[in-house]
């Protein structure tokens, strides 16, 4: 076919998707910066009270932030909620968390020894939460993200939050941290300079890493969290921060509103 004939034939065809600008209903879709932070945040005020459902969750989820806090002189107190018995021998898991805590600069560890995978049934008692908050007087309480897969992770957050709301004399921020997946975040902490220390802490959990490469999982999430922070940030930890203690249902509503933002302008 001659080129002139080909061109005439090609351009005389109707377009598959005709551009009808008059009837086009423009979508007002939100920008990325409404969904995820584009700058790293500072670490929150201490002392910290961190609830880890199992030994290793604290290191995987927020080991970098703990290192940054401890090196700034913030007292970090760790609460291990379950006995971790479904993932290995309880005594070994206790030794592992003590080694990791030493590397991270954690000041104290309390063990609640609820049976593994039973937090939803047993709950974390008001007595325990009262005792821990009176003892450590936290300015920031850390709990697992609402979108965690493991039921103990979600049950820990629900149970602790419910009890915190009944403590009228406690004034603290609540920060939710990511352990096994990305959830919603409104704070990103740059952990590039302490990444090696976080790796060492996670590698204390030999009994767990021999089953799953949890160190790789944690750092894959941390690498992905650096996506919006520029070339100088190699790794970041993501959090959902609230400026005060909120009821579980209020937090759920806030997350629903955030997730709905993705659909803004889409009909
Ligand atoms: Zn866990």
Present as ligands are:
zinc ion
Q: Can you tell me the residue ranges where pLDDT is under 50 for at least 5 consecutive residues?
A: none
The averaged pLDDT comes out at: 92
Query: What composes the largest sheet?
Result: 7 strands, mixed
Cross-sheet strand order for the largest sheet: 3-2-1-4-5-7-6
What Rg is obtained from the alpha carbons, in whole angstroms? 23 Å
Looking at the overall shape, the CATH architecture is 3-Layer(aba) Sandwich
The CATH homologous superfamily is called LmbE-like
- Give the termini distance in whole angstroms: 45 Å
Number of domains: 1
Q: How many strand elements?
A: 7
How many helices does DSSP assign? 10
- Structural class based on helices, strands and sheet pairing: alpha/beta
What percentage of amino acids are in beta strands?
Answer: 5-15%
Shape: globular
Proportion of helical residues: 40-55%
CATH C-level class = Alpha Beta
CATH-defined topology:
Rossmann fold
Helix and strand succession? HEHEHEHHEHEEHHHEH
């Amino acid at each position: 076919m001659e080129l002139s004939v080909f061109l005439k034939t090609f351009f005389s065809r109707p377009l598959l998707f005709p551009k009808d600008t008059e009837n086009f209903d423009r979508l007002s879709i939100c920008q990325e910066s409404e969904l995820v932070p584009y700058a790293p945040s500072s670490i929150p005020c201490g002392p910290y009270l961190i609830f880890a459902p199992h030994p290793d969750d604290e290191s995987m989820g927020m080991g970098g932030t703990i290192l940054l806090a401890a090196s700034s002189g913030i007292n970090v107190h760790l609460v291990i909620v379950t006995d971790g018995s479904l993932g290995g021998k309880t005594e070994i898991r206790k030794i592992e968390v003590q080694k990791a805590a030493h590397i991270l600069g954690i000041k104290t560890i309390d063990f609640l020894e609820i049976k593994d995978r039973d937090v939803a049934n047993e709950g974390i008692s008001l007595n325990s939460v009262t005792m821990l908050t009176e003892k450590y007087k936290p300015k920031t309480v850390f709990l697992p993200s609402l979108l965690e897969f493991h039921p103990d992770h979600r049950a820990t957050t629900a149970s602790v939050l419910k009890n915190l709301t009944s403590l009228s004399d406690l004034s603290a921020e609540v920060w939710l941290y990511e352990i096994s997946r990305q959830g919603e975040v409104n704070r990103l902490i740059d952990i590039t300079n302490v990444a090696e220390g976080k790796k060492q802490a996670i590698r204390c959990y030999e009994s767990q890493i021999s089953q799953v490469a949890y160190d790789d999982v944690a750092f894959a999430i941390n690498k992905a969290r650096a996506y919006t922070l520029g070339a100088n940030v190699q790794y970041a930890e993501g959090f959902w921060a609230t400026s005060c203690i909120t009821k579980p249902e209020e937090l759920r509503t806030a997350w629903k509103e955030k997730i709905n933002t993705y659909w803004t302008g889409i009909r």
